[in-house]
Structure formats: structure tokens, C-alpha cells
Amino acid sequence: MSQPPVLELVGIEKSFPGVRALRGVELDVRPGEIHCLVGENGAGKSTLIKILAGVHQADAGEVRVLGTPRHFAKPIEAQDAGLSFVFQELNVVEHLTVADNMSLGLEGSRFRWDRAQALRLAVQHLGDLGVDIDPAIPMQRLRPAERQLVMIAKALSTSAKAIIMDEPTAALTETEIERLFEIVRRLRTSGVAVLYVSHRLEEVFALADRITVMRDGQRVATQPVAELDRSKVVALMVGRELENIYEHPVRTRGEEALRLEGVGGAAGRVTSVDLVVHAGEVVGLSGIVGSGRTELARIVFGAEPLEFGRMFLWGQPYHPATPREAIRRGVGLVPEERRTQGIVGVLTVRENISMAAAGRVSRLGLVNRRVDGKLAEEYRERLNIRTPSVEQAIRLLSGGNQQKAVIAKWLATEARVLVLDEPTRGVDVGAKAEIFHLVNQLAAAGNAILMISSELEEIVAFCDRVAVMRDGALVRTLAGAEINRERVMHLATGGE
Amino acid sequence: MATTPTPAQAQGRRRAGLNPALVQSSVTLMILLGLCAIFAVLSPAFLNPANLTNVLRQVSIVMIVASAGTFVLISGGLDISVGGVLALTGVVFAKLAVAGLALPIAIGGAVAVGALMGLINALLVVRLGITPIIVTLGSLYVARGLAFLIAEGHSVVTGLPDYFILPGRSYLGPIPTPVIAAVAVVLVAYVLLHRSLLGKYTYAIGGNKETALLSGISVGKVQGSLYVLSSLSAGIAGVILASRLGSGQPDAGVGFEFEVIVAIIVGGTSLAGGQGTIVGTVIGALIVAVLGNGLNLLGVQTFYQYLVQGVALILAVLLDMTLKRRAQAGSASRARPGRGTPSAPAAGGDTQQAAKTGA
User: Fold this and answer.
1) Cβ contact (<8 Å) for B196 and A111?
2) Contact check, Cβ <8 Å, B340/A145
3) Which residues in B lie closer than 8 A to residue A127 (C-beta atoms)?
4) B118/chain A closest Cα distance in angstroms
5) ipTM score assigned to the predicted complex
């Protein structure tokens, strides 16, 4: 306790247009400490990390490194101050080699591109980590997990005073996670300060000395791990009991809606999937990043080619060559990336809702504004989309309300098979509960729902069956009592 | 590595030998040689040393500017101002020569004007964040307008000293001076792109700007210096062209910017950034030049040549896309049987995939 903190944040404030992302956040990480930062999506963790990294600048407050106030105007300054980062997004340059990625920005020389030295150092640092990757191959040849390991090796190679890891395990398998943990603990022993950001509580409890919980841009607690348990942390994170969110009624399984037989495609990223989804049920699709979940969703929606296997919709052969065909057959996709794939930000809520349902709102190619407006109003009310008007540009809405509008888009097409890819990503807890409520209504009305989610909690608590994918193949479909977090995680990361 | 490579790793090693950029350069080189062979058969004049020298002299100007332009494209940018800068610097060179300045000073002045145009492009793109195509489209017109203003509306011919034709028309032994200049620029560009950190950062910025930024690279400085290099090279080319034409012509090099971009893209550099090589650009420029020369020798009319060039550009991009898709499918089928995960189920799919792509 007598040691001064390596990293200290005092009264950090940050606002973006329309959002107060951080409100007076305090945090300190001591030498030889693993400090875990937890919080729901949108709690402000990533913004905080970006301020530390010099990507964003705080509006108020102070960052101190070893007691000295520092202001990071750009990333290089944070690096020079002895901070090292593993970012949540896989930040790699695909066409450069593993070694060149690892040395990027850390080259010893000022002018020369010394590939040989980069290779030597890469071999050494990957070896320290016990990672078996050839540093001479281009980054694009690596799986997401391998890329993540490379970036971790890079962060460790700088002998930094503090290492900040933002969700470093998102793409890793169980073995790799264990290896990472060993390394993180070794860092602690050698006196490095580790700030570890994660929403996976089992990891947090396996690693942390202290835990800081954030909610709505504020720090709600910082406590030694001994004083906390899972349910306390969860309660602090969401500010209410979890059970209310994942409302899971008894659902009636209707006729077979979608059947996949030996499905493969998307340039080899999906290899063999057998799956049946019935009307009235919610089937979860789980797997680590890069396991082919999203690609499978896109195959079903006609956005990626089906290369082998067969699909059936309501018993009829179904091989959509384009999304247009899928939509015509009554299939809808709420895509993973809401902002780039789900909505057209500059268009109005009304225009977004009726985008895929041209037939209902137009005649001879001309949009009937009155019908269009009525349709949008109807869904605004039904889905409780909070916007001053349906004529508002959709980008001005909150994430949760945008997502509801995306779902409304598919309701407007009268789709009966809905694929939801990360439907609750980046939305707040309240909107999350509303989205689940809505999905329940849809299932009760006889729609078939296939839901992808990285939040295990969500999948486990909400789905009737859970299909687990790994390396492009569906490994196992769990039902009823078989469904639990450990089982799903185990299957997703290489167990049987 | 001290450890014994796993089979998957050995496979990775083997594939590492098949560098996609190398495959692409080899393919474009074969296209170039193929074209040469065809023209050699169809027209006996083609292989005539005088003709080949002529081709090289013609291509040298494009090659100089395309070498620097390759950097800009790899970084994910675009510079279409070079045609205007070419004319402007040619006129400046002529004016300085008429004013009685010594040759090195006249050349230096012209090239400096080129670099200044590049600096303006750089500031507008980097500082103000205006899209490169808009910025350089604007400066294309501005440069050409300045060229006409300085030249007072017509070619600068009267009063040119004797040395004026040296950069464009003289020889060093049997080799035309422009060719020597082009070789020198290509060599410098090669070293900068493939042996210096400027090159590495250029690839990094074009491949993933966010990553480059987060890695502590001064993205703005690197991007800016590439626009300066590009305009500077247009300045060198402007001097050579004016000298070859024997006058500073404000209307010189109309459409030149597109010749440059065609050469770079035919050479395998992607407009999306992150990929490309100097060798590829050299081959690309030669393909375009040989095509033009060969068709001329065969007596094909100019308007057919436009057709051929247009088709050649699109075919080159098509080839590029095909090669990349192959490479991607190859890496996907390799990457799936996960290392570190003892996974059997994927293996079946892998063979299926391999059978499908014929890999």
C-alpha cells in the first residue's frame, strides 16, 4: 500500500456530442497489481482506455504516471510514458508480416526497415510467450486468436511499466487463455501494473487483486477481490437484478422453419453445419470470434455463398443467392455491425423502417408517404422506439433505439425467420430488456429466431437450444438442462 | 526457432514462400514479356535497338512519377494533380532558363515549385482532412492555371539557352538521360519503400490507419511527405518533358495523371491501399508503354489504342482480384484446422474446400 501507483486517473471527464461518456472517474493501478475494470457495454471502459492511450483527450481531470501528471495528445506519448496496450479490436496490418506488425512503431532505428532484426525479436518475444507462430508470414494468414496472441506478445515486448489489456481473451481458446493468465501473473510478480478490462467475470475473479466497477460513465466501486463475489459485481454493474432482463417464458415449438444440412460456404469459413430452427423457438448460436457464426448467419441470409450442403425453409428447398431473395422468402437479418450494416444513419427512422418493405409502401415505384409514415408510426409505438419523430435521422437515436428500428425493419417485411447477430451489442441494460421482451413476443407469435451473441449469460439464460460453433463447424447443439456457461465455453474453445 | 515446427507450422512456412506480391509481379512480368514477344513477331521494327530506346525514353517520365505515386496509393491516398504539376514545373523550368539562370538552379527551382505544390496538397489532406481526390483534383486545375499564367498563355520558347535540351534529349553513352533519371528515381523509390521505415509506415497506414496511429506512428507526417514526394517527382518529370519538347508548354501532359495511375494499378498496387511494389509499378509502366508502341508500329489508329488501354486496365484489376481471392481462399483453408485447438471436425470440411478450390 505504501508504493505510489504506477497509473492514476483523477476526476476524468469526457463528453461526446450528446453523451456524457465519463463523469469524474477515479482509478489507480499499483506496481505488481492486477486491477480489473468491469462494466456493461457502454459503461465507459473503452473511452477510459482510449484516453489513457492518447486516442481521446479528457475534458477535465488528470492522468498521472508514477505520480507525474501527463497529458497524452497522441498514442506515441502514452507509449513513451511507459504504457503498453492490447486493444479490444484486432488492430493489425494484414499485409505486413507478424514480425513487422510486432515491431511497428517500436523500431530501434530511425530510418532503416530492418526485417531481420524484427524477425529475431519476434521469435524471441513469441518464444517468451510460448506461442508457436511463424513470424515471417503475413498477418492475414493467422486466425483471430493467433493475431490476438501476436498483439499481446507485442505489448509485452516493450517492458512497459503498466500494461492495459482491453478484452484480450475475446478470440482466445481455453488453453490460450490459461497461458495468457500465467503471463499476466508473471508480470505482476515482476512488478508491472496491469489494468485488465473484461466483462467475463470468471476471468476477473481468476486474476484480479482489485476490481473497479463502472456504470454509466461513473465508477461505482473499487474493492479488493476478497471483499467481492460474482453476484455483488453483477449487481454493481447492472444496478439491478439480472433475472429481470432475460425473461424466458415457456415457448411452444411449432413446425420446422429452417433446416440446414451440411452447410458450408463463405470462402471456407463455414464448413459443416446441421441445424433446425422451429417456429416459436429461440435458438442461440455461440462460438468464439472467428468461429464462423456471423458467416453462417450471412449464408442463411443470402449474403455469402452457400458452397455445399442444403437449406430448407418451411420444408421447401431454400438457396438464396442474394439477400433480396432471402427477404422475399421471409427471412430477416439484424446484422452484427449496427452502424455500418443495420442502419443508414443519414436517413430518417421512417425510411430505415420501410427500407426492406418497398412493396408495402409503394406503388409503381413511387413511395406513398402516407402509408410509409403510418407504418413507421405503428412500429414506433409497438416497439417503443424513443424518438421525437419518425422523421428524425436515425443516427441521432441511442444504440438501443436504433436496434429496435432495425428489428422493426424486418417486422415490416413480415419476415418469419429472423437471424439476430449480436442484437444487444452496445445497448444499455434497459434497452436490452426491451429487446428481449420483443424477441419473446416475436417467438410467441410463431416466428423462428436464431440469435448469435458473445454474451454467454444472454445465450444461456434466454435460448431454448444453443448451437455451438468452432472453426466453421457446428460442434454440438445443447438443449434444456445441458445448457450452462461452462459447457458452452468448453465446447466453443475445443472441448468435447 | 528452437522448437520443432508442428506440421501446421511447417505448412505455414511452405506457404510463406508463395508471397502473393511475388506471384503477382511474376504474372505481370510474364504479361510484359508476352506482349514483347507478340509485337516482336508481328513487327520486325519492334526489337530494333532504336525503337526499344525510344520506348524506354517515353516511359521514363511516367515511371518517375508512378514510382512516387505508388507510395501515395499504397498509403490509401490518391494524387491526380501530377499532370498539372508536370506542366507548371516545365513552364517554371523554361522561364528560369530564359532568365539566364544556370542549369542546376533552373532545375532546382522547378523541382522546388513541384515540392511546394505537394506541400499544399499535404496540408489540405492531412491538416484539414479533405479527401485526397478532391484536394488533388483542385490542385490539378490550380497548377495548370498557374502554368498558363506564368507562361502568359503560350509556350515558352524564345530565348531558351542551349542547355535547355540537356535533361530531355541528351545521352550518357548510349543511354538517354531521361532513362538514367528514371532508373535513379526507381532505385531511390525501391529503397525507400522496401528498405526504409517510411516504406513500412506507408504499408501500415494503407493497411490499417487506426493500427498505425495506435502504434505511435505520426500518420499525418508520413502521409504528408508522400504527397510532397509525389509532386516533387512530377517536378523532375516536368523538367525532362519540357526539355524533350524543347519548350515550356502550359498544356503539356493533359491526362498524364491517369497514365500514371494506370501504370501503378496495372503493376498490381491496390487503390484500396496496403499493397503494391515498386517493381510492379515499373512493369506496369512498361506494359502500358510497350502496348502503345507496339500498336503504333502496327499502324493501329490512336482511338483503338484508347480502347486497348481501357480494356487492359480493367483486365489488370480483374487479374489482381482473382489472385487475391485465391490467396485468401488458400489462407482460409489453412487457417481453419485450428492450431492449439485439438479439433477433428474441421478436417473433413478442409478437404472438401481443398477439392473445391483445386488447391
Assistant:
1) yes
2) yes
3) 1-3
4) 22
5) 0.80
What pLDDT, in 10s, does the model give residues A94-126? 889 999 999 998 888 888 999 999 999 999 999
- Comparing alpha-carbon positions, the chain A residue that sits nearest to B356 is A307
Nearest to A473 by CA among A303, A317, A290, A281: A290
Residues shown for chain B: 359
Q: Which amino acid is at A282?
A: V
Separation between Cα atoms, residue A166 and residue B203, nearest integer Å: 26
Nearest to B203 among A96, A112, A127 (CB): A96
Which of B9, B208, B328 should we substitute to test contact with A (largest number of A Cβ atoms within 10 Å)?
B208
**Closest by CA position to B274, among listed B193, B215, B335:** B193
Cell 445441458: give the residue. Answer: A482
In this complex, do B211 and A93 lie within 8 Å of one another by their Cβ atoms? yes
Q: Which distant-in-sequence residues (6+ apart) come within 8 Å of B245 by Cβ?
A: B90, B168, B252
User: Closest by alpha carbon to A41, among A457, A380, A468?
Assistant: A457
Closest alpha carbon to A8 in A79, A83, A94, A103: A83
How far is the C-alpha of A106 from the C-alpha of A95, rounded, in Å? 18
Cβ density class A91-130: b for 16+ within 10 Å, e for less = bbbbbbbbbbbbbbbebeeeeebbbeebbebbbebbeebe
Q: Which residues of chain A make contact with B1, given a CB cutoff of 8 A?
A: 123, 127
Q: Is B339 left (phi over 0), alpha (psi -120 to 50) or beta?
A: beta
User: Hey, what amino acid is at A207?
Assistant: L
> Do residue B340 and residue A105 have CB atoms under 8 angstroms apart?
no
Dist CA B30 CA B52 (whole Å):
18
pLDDT at B357 over 60: no
Query: What residues of A are in contact with residue B71 (Cβ under 8 Å)?
Result: none
Kindly list the residues from chain A whose CB atom is less than 8 angstroms away from the CB atom of residue B212. Answer: 93, 104-105
pLDDT given for residue B80 in this prediction: 96
Cell numbers describing residue B180: 538514367
Contact A127 B1 (CB under 8 A): yes
- pLDDT tens for residues A22-77? 899 999 999 999 999 988 766 788 889 999 999 899 999 999 999 889 989 988 89
**Crossing angle between the packed helical segments B82-98 and B49-74, to the nearest 10 degrees:** 120
Question: Hey, what's the cell of B70?
Answer: 505508388
SS3 A263: strand
